[in-house]
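Dear Dr. L.,

I hope this message finds you well. Following up on our conversation about the binding site, I have prepared a predicted three-dimensional model of the protein together with uridine-5'-diphosphate-xylopyranose. For your records, I am including the exact sequence and ligand specification that went into the calculation, followed by the structure tokens. Please feel free to forward this to your student if that is useful.
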Amino acid sequence: MTQIKNICCIGAGYVGGPTMAVIAQKCPEINVTVVDLNEQRIADWNDDDLDKLPIYEPGLKEVVAEARGRNLFFSTDVDKAIDNAEMIFISVNTPTKTYGKGKGMAADLKYIELCARQIARVSKTDKIVIEKSTLPVRTAEALRSILDNTSSGVKFQILSSPEFLAEGTAVDDLQNADRVLIGGDQTPEGLEAMQALTDIYAHWLPKERILQTNVWSSELSKLTANAFLAQRVSSINSLSALCEKTEANIEEVSRAIGADSRIGSKFLKSSVGFGGSCFQKDILNLVYICQSLGLKEVADYWEQVIIMNDYQKHRFADNIIKTLYNTVSGKKIAFLGWAFKKDTNDTRETAAMYVADILMEDRATIVVYDPKVKYEQMFADVDYLNTRTEKENKELLKPQTDPYEACKDVHAIAILTEWDEFKGYDWQKIYDHMMKPAFVFDGRNVLDGEKLEKIGFKYYGIGK
Ligand code: UDX
Ligand code: ADP
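The resulting structure of the complex is given below.
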């Protein structure tokens, strides 16, 4: 039986960082080393000031404080960590391809491939290699092919163990996971490798929550679990448009639908649109796989989830423009929130950047306040969309560290992230210092519309 004493994780991002921190916390007898090519990221993980960790997640700094230096290490020496480990997790990013075949849809596997080649080159002893990133179905096969054909006689077992943590609740999701999926070969060596990983999770999770499957089922389950969740958000968002045209209220509709125990209440919160690193990417991936296999109707079915989401972001921005008398040119609009959801500093695919982009195309100035997102990240996001020059973006996007300052003298306020602190603001004070009529566009339905209307605001929620 493989005895695991050293784990290496390649990629110190939103997945690798929190996952390894929790494994190290729960398995004090195992050394866990997280490596990354990005020196700054590793330096931040090693910073004595735990508020400087590169990733913000509630509860993460406590876990890091407990394990770091004891059996949790962060390093840029990738080769050494690979060589030392019996088990290697790959959690590098797999963004949507921005070039060539599958552009805009397929996952770019170049980082995974680079990792595989590096593992093959460095390894002197047998290893279990686990794909942790969200990957298109059959990636493990590519991984296996590279490892088996480029290494010198070392044996690798490839497992798929996709991550189900959601950002903002990552630590809790890891510590109290509904399920952990472990996919592996149904051979004696494959089963042994699956057992080794099962034993790690069994340090803190009941056995019945650790599901063993074949590799392909594990990969596909992850992709489609996200597609189902995103589909619910797009479904409720499609109804929000209908509610706005009728007397129905989306929150009442959502409550009524969710009260059906067969449907359940989660992921029925209407919003300006879903964001994050997974939903869009995974669905595009699924669509691409279906198209490649000639399953056009299946591809179109899932693609509609993305189309709905794009529509929702446009609808929100268009409503702001229409309400502000069909022009936002030269006007200031405050954005409260930039992250793709609360309790994270991640902005990948955040609705905020798309809405800002549309308004900036209409020459509005966007003043942004977000409690956790850095200024540079906001600029990087709008620059990434490539609609305007960096210089133009600098002129139109104005980050602010103080929410009251951000809302001063603006023509409208838009809520893009559901940060709890927004509810507790002194809205009377905000009202007193902004242009009239004072418009609030609540893209997350977090504020009390009635209360704001009493103060004098013109309040627009989603689907209300
Ligand atoms: C998701 C999956 O939940 C997780 O299991 C997977 O491993 C990674 O992808 P994450 O992207 O971190 O996690 O966030 P999630 O909480 O799923 O939210 C995704 C987006 O949907 C956010 O922008 C969120 O604001 C939005 N959302 C979610 C809604 O608009 N309404 C809802 O009811 C729920
Ligand atoms: P995720 O949300 O999937 O964790 P992130 O982008 O937050 O994605 O993290 C992925 C990390 O993987 C990045 O910090 C990146 O620098 C790192 N990475 C990518 N390729 C390699 C590689 N070949 N070796 C080491 N680290 C890598």
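In brief: The chain has a mean pLDDT of 95.

With kind regards,
A. P.
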